[in-house]
């Protein structure tokens, strides 16, 4: 189960980083649109973790709802960090 959660988290992180960087690059400087994928992912992870404690054991592709929630929160946090570093460097150069 740990291996599937790590794999899901790494794949989600890559997708969210690419999406966040694309949105940060295409939108204007004042827009916070590049941060929305990470925020949405972290919120979804929190909901999945809370749902897993209510529903009990539900497996999806080798990981329970709690594992999916942890993977989503991990991906959201890492993508927010990388997007904010990229956005800060882009705004400092302009």
TrEMBL record:
Name the keywords, alphabetized: Membrane, Transmembrane, Transmembrane helix
Annotated TM spans:
6-23, 35-55, 67-86
Q: Which domain of life is it from?
A: Bacteria
* Protein name per its UniProtKB record: Uncharacterized protein
Q: Species name for this entry?
A: Virgibacillus sediminis
